[in-house]
Each structure stands twice: as C-alpha cells, then as structure tokens.
Batch of 3 targets.
Target 1
Amino acid sequence: MDKKEIEILELLEKNGRMNVHMIARMVELSVDEVDAAISKFEQMQIVHGYSTLIDWTEVRGHEGVTAMIDVKVTPIRGKGFDDVAERIYRFPEVKAVYLMSGAYDLSVSVEGKTMSQVARFVSEKLSTLDTVISTTTHFILKKYKHDGIIFGEDDNNDRRMPVSP
C-alpha cells in the first residue's frame, strides 16, 4: 500500500462523510483515482463500513447503558479464542469483542437500555457459556473521548493560544 492510499484511509477514518472531491484535493490525486482506491478498500474489507458517533447522553430518553466486560475463558483446542469470541459477538447486545493480554482473555463491549438489562445479559447469556470461566463488568459512567472525538467540547471554541508581540 502506498503513501497516498494510507492518507486516504486516514482521512476516511477521521471523517467517513468526507466528499471524494475534497479527499482528491487533499491527497493530490484525481477523483477517479480516489474513488477507485476507496472501492478497492471496500472490496478488500479494509474499510468495513461508515458510522456516525452520537453522544446519546444529549438525546433525552435514549441514554442507555454501556458496559465493558472482562471475560476469562478456556480456549477451544485447535481453535484458540476465535470460536469463543464468535459465540460471544453473535449476541445482539454485544457491540465489540477484543482479544486482550493480561489477566483476562476477552474484553466485551455491551449496550443495553438499563443496567438490569446488561446484568441479565451477563448472568443469563454470557456467563452460562461453557468456555467462560469468569467475568468482571465495568459500567461506563461518562464518556469523555471516543474514537478521537472529545465529548462535550464546543467545536467552535478556538483553543489556540493567543500570540502577542
């Protein structure tokens, strides 16, 4: 992958809605070249999709609950952690699953309407899997920054330091 393609990916990662014409100007390529590169990234599954980051705490009645769950599992012989992770990520409540180093094997991000709903997921679905040894649930109380976006910061607020002679 060349430098221009990496630049395109970085721009898309920062703003998936960025206009192809704008990307082409920024990386100094033609619109057709950028369009072809993006199509290639999608076909190669380098780009898996385009999403919008929403601060649900600002939408009254739709706040919900997010929890990070540390999961210790017994890997399956010959398959490792992949099959266990797949069983977990197939639950609709699960938003992300990561293989981790350290005391726990998997980190699972779960969303629900209430803490009780998340607790039921852990007790009735996750912890009942035969490969799950233990879980530790951490409820997210407040998001300060997510995917590089700072929550609660006014985008129009100029944070540059004033320079005076």
Note: The chain has a mean pLDDT of 89.
Target 2
Amino acid sequence: MTKDKEFEHLRRVAIMGNGGSGKTWLARRLSLALDRAPVHLDDVHWQPGPHGIARDKAIVIEEVRQLSLTSRWLIEGVYGWLINVILPRTTMLVFLDLPEDECIASIRARGKQRGESDESFEELIDWVSKYRERRNNWSSFESHIRMFEEFPNEKVRLGSRTEIIEYLDRVNDL
C-alpha cells in the first residue's frame, strides 16, 4: 500500500471533545504528520481581541462550510454545531472523551487565554465540569457521542492521554 493510500482516511480530519481534552495538542502534532495547518474552531468562532465576543453565527457557519469544501484539512473544536457542518465531508472523526477532572486539570495548567478575566476563567472551569450534565447543547457529551455513533466513516474514540499518544504514534508510523 502506498503512503498516499495509507493516509486516505486522514484527508479531512475533525477532532472534537470537551474543553481541555487535548484537541489542540493533538491537532498540532497531527499537523506535522499530515503536513497541514490545523484549524482551531475557537479562532473562527470568537472575534480577535477581548475574550468572549462571538462572531456572527451565520458568517462562522459559512466560513466553516467553505473550508470543508477544500480537499484536505484538520479541524478541531468543542463546538458540535460547527463540527456538524463539516461531518458530511469528514473522512476521520476523532472524539477525545476524557474524564472532566483531567480536562479541568489541563485548563488550569495552561492558564487563562485570550485575555480572560479570573471570573471568565472560573466560568470555563465550571462549564467544562458539566460536560456530561448539559442537555440540548451542541457542546455537550450527549451531542458529541450522538455525532460519533452516527458517523459512518473512519472514527476513533480516545478516553485517556495514553490512548491519545498511542493514536498519534500509529499515525506517525504510517
């Protein structure tokens, strides 16, 4: 099998999971193996500058849809409503399903980002802690697991840091 054929299922990769699960970390490392820059959905969803100002939802959806039409991409984010936009063209779905306490520890270790206030940082921690409790929310476990289970193409669900590293090693060995 040629290297191109081995990478075929990795043409258009979507990574989803809770905040702090390691989506950005994994995307950065996969980008080296796949030779493409990762797209971080936080950068698409939020306006540059002060933390917490969302861009127009219709514009964001259209930008993500247009991006999904390209031949190769690597997109990661917590926003199920945006992952759902790209799923029809996704060739590999990666679901990072780590325990909330590990996600919270990761967020605390990385610290505040994008000019977050102490208050907004603690709100993020609280939001991440309720991942499995949220209902009718595109960024919940409920939504992510439904998308994962219904996804018809190649997919992988990783439940620990060890599984994430092992998956990355397998991709790097291709």
Note: The first strand starts at residue 12 and ends at 17.
Target 3
Amino acid sequence: MSPAAILAHGLKKSYGSVAAVDGVDLEVPRGSFFGFLGPNGAGKSTTIRLLTGLIPADSGTVEILGRRLPEDELEIKRRIGLVPDESLLFDRLTGAEFLEFVGRMYGLDRATAIDRAGGLLDLLELARDRKIIGEYSKGMRKRVALAASLIHHPELFLMDEPFEGVDAVGARLMKDILIDQVRRGATVFLTSHVLEVVERLCDRIAIINRGTIVTSGTLEDLRASGESLEDAFVRVLGAERQLERLDWL
C-alpha cells in the first residue's frame, strides 16, 4: 500500500481559457496534518473537488489511499470525509436526521447510524432538538458538516475552510477533534485563510498560486529563521509591498 494518503501528478483543470489548476503535483503522507494554502482564486477548492472526484480532471493522475480515480471512485468515497467550502446540507432536516441519513448512505445500519449521530451531536455541542438545519447559524452548519464527515470513521479528511464562521469555542472543539483523529492514524488535508490555525495544527504545508504549487514541505522547511507562517506565506508569493496611504484616511 502506498505510504501517501494523497498522490497527484500533473493535475489540470481549466474553465474555458482559464487554468484553475495547472499541473499540480502533490504528495500527502498518511497520518499527517496537511495545510493547503493560497490566495483567493489560487485553485484550492478546485483541487479539493478534483481529489474527491466531484469534478473530473482534464489530465493528470490521482491516487487516494492507494486507489486510483476515477476507477475506484466509490471505494475512495467510502473512506474519506469531506467538509466542503459551501456546506451542502439538507435544510429541512434536523441535525440528528441529517447525520442518520449520512450514516445510512455510508452503509451503517439504522441503529448504529442513530447512535453515532447522537454521540456526534453531543461531542460537537449541538442540541438534540427539532430545530432544522435551515435555522442553524453558519458556525453550527460547519459543526454539522464536520459531524457528517466523522460518522463513518474515515481514514482521510478533506476540508475546505472548515473553521470559517465558527466561534472561538466551536473552533477549539473542532481542532481538538481533528488533532485526535490524526493521533489515531487518520490524515487531514485542509485549506484555511487563517494562518495562525494552520501554524498551530499542520506539520506539512503546500502553497498554490494561480493553479500551480509554488512550494511544499514541512512547516519548518517553509519558515526562515524567526519567521511566522504569515511572513513566509507573503514572502513565497512575492506579495510584500509598501503600504500606500490615503491622505484622508
């Protein structure tokens, strides 16, 4: 079995004349907490959609947990947990009903799905009431999306801005859950614009810009002596500039 949880080579995806992902090579070791960074529009979300088989690549190869896309797409989807940037939830269901549905879709029997749904609602401090998801706040929707990614106990998590809109207490809880999953041998691959979160959680990082990986390695490899991750990120992208001031501001 491949030692990599994710192995992509020459991955390309264009929309018209615009290359959203342009020859991405990516290797994510099993058991790692991997941060996938880049500015807005760099190709992060498109890459995650390619890695999960949600959209087809124009060219290139993808292996997830030792299996190839698209040949082994169904088996791959059984073994991964996804938190997309846009929380694709069923707004007319309660949290418990949605999680039971997701568990059943992953092949859990009804009793197990109900039991795990209740446990996850408690773990993520979500009420077991009749409130439907359409009435949830953005942070609560992110917590439900995380619960849905956990219910079948996957080996790999792919997460697009999982902490966006989540309050400090909820974010801390979610981080602790993910750290525990990595300790148990799972792999987490996430994007985030909050570099302090990535700096605290991730042991390996790749930076994408204009559809191309510009650097990849351990957190310590990326940072020069004494640098913060934010400093390194700006330096790698060549985005440092003198602040222009407005006379009236």
Note: The chain has a mean pLDDT of 91.
